[in-house]
DNA sequence: TTGAGCTCCGTAAACGTTTACGATTTCATA
DNA sequence: TATGAAATCGTAAACGTTTACGGAGCTCAA
């Protein structure tokens, strides 16, 4: 069922059929109607390969997600709403979104080279940016349209949107200090993911702004999952004085952290204050509920899509923004995990 | 950088270049070497559209995931290992895997029609099959190669692999009955997802096999997330006699269920036995740790890939299996949530 | 009556591959 | 030397689109 079959069936040239289907102006409204009706009746869908070959464009955008330990564990509940937002924008422009899955045994840059070299997508959204991210360098020098969910220390000017981990750290630290805490630990990713650096810097800066000395022993690297949270708690318990509060960079860590503290007879929310990261169904139903930060993930997806489109020549007129480079706000959602207990109430 | 540029650069015909790159036999080893070296040096990657158009095949397989409530919340930790397994097989055949994201506002069958009609993929893996799943009907009548992760009540013969929810139900019920339980509740998905029906049937059959009467009041529909678990616990608390045990179909539900019981002063694992579903980092770090079932997700992915390839003409010789229609085994992992308390120890 | 302008449509080239087919060369053998 | 087979390579068609270009038919004012 190619366009040729359709044209033969209608006894019209294939050029006219193509123009009719693509909404070109120089076609009789009456014949256009005939074409559209026949196309629907015969179930004709244009072959994407033929179209791509001719137009040099695929109408497809790739969202690259790596299956690393850092992202695998909260992948579903985080990315799905983002996808929804992205798609809601793309749909208006007849763009399709696919998730590009880079396996753990494949080099991300090599994967990108393959998929981009094949002209598989017109543009890319990459996420979980590393401090040194070869993907950014690669995409920049090939001039592939892309937007990064996350900053990077890689040089060059490119569009990015990053969660406000600096703001999160500042808000959390200030809040805890106002509650009377002085020894505030943080759990940071053990990997080279850039948000870890941002988070650490924000933490240090907030301490300094509040006149609390920085203690490197309170920075606890761990994987961003339950096991990592367990280890963070263990590290805290090993210290001579148990830190009175801890800030986590991932909500799954809270589960493991709670567990370890329970095992030690310590009640989070009563004996130690905990602030987690992302508000979710999970954080609302933990015991104690987790004080954390809310993100509008769907809006984030929308903004990502718009940022990408503004870099693509074909859409530049519809989205004439400057290169997007912004920090995405997050709102604190108070829970039970940092409120029941105040060090200044007992000392 | 097309094959034509490469041919010109080497002063060879493009036909020979193509044959050299594709490993055809009728090409001088020496010129092949030259071609390969030049291709790598100039960074030539064949254009997929051109290739697809000529060959009628895209070398791409789509894994369709819908962002429903049922799948969104455990999407990452469940699907990522499956993807890994699928990819490990595909890589050997130079097939690329992409995740197809069907938004919530789009009809899954319509989405499938678009992506399949465009000749975007050579084959499909669909998941989260519904009891009546129009996707299966659609794919069958178009003769698109596919495999389903999950059964369906839709007619027709198609390859599928389904988690052994019947076996899970039987194992859990028998275990609890052996512990002395008689009033065993189950939380089942509120949606039309097929696993809910399988799970329910297995539950009923296991009760009957053990001579325990079936009480429809103990079947509690809920969403497969924390909130659903909370509601399951609420429903249990509303009954005249609190059921002594509950089996959940999703591990996230356990968090909400624990929460509701804690609020009521009831300790899961001591006052009520809980068996959850999938073993994961999460279930290992809950308090109490969740008795649940382990799945080898990577192997599942491998099997899915093989099942799909065996239905594709181009690979039928490498995977000459019959149509796969199998139940995937799961292994019970004892936790703390169903052991501390035994109704027969106190009565 | 002429021709200008418009509407509508057909023709054919082009996108980048792969591959069937045939042409050329080499080389051993009759 | 003539013949045939084998090895190697070039030619050109084909895949399904889109689109630049031109042509046919029509209207209408000059």
Topology:
The structure is a homodimer of 347-residue chains.
Chain A: H1 3-10, H2 14-21, H3 29-42, H4 48-55, E1 60-66, H5 69-72, H6 75-90, E2 96-102, H7 108-117, E3 123-127, H8 134-142, E4 146-149, E5 160-163, H9 165-178, E6 184-189, H10 194-209, E7 219-222, H11 226-238, E8 245-248, H12 251-263, E9 273-278, H13 281-285, E10 291-294, H14 297-309, E11 325-328, E12 331-333, H15 343-346
Helix pairs in contact in A: 1-2, 6-14, 9-10, 11-12
The first copy, chain A, binds a DNA duplex (30 and 30 nucleotides) through helix 2 and helix 4.
Main features:
homodimer; 347 residues; alpha/beta; 6-stranded parallel β-sheet; 6-stranded mixed β-sheet; 12 strands; elongated; DNA-binding
| Quaternary structure | homodimer
Protein structure class of chain A = alpha/beta
Uncertain regions spanning at least 5 consecutive residues of chain A = none
Number of helices of chain A: 15
Mean pLDDT of chain A: 92
Helical residue percent band of chain A: 40-55%
Structural Rg of chain A: 25 Å
Task: Give the terminus-to-terminus CA distance of chain A.
Answer: 80 Å
Form type of chain A: elongated
Biggest sheet layout of chain A: 6 strands, parallel
The total count of strands of chain A amounts to: 12
In terms of DSSP E residues, the strand content of chain A is 15-25%
Q: Largest sheet of chain A, order of strands side by side? A: 2-1-3-4-5-11
Largest interface: A-B, 63 and 62 residues
Sequence of secondary-structure elements of chain A: HHHHEHHEHEHEEHEHEHEHEHEHEEH
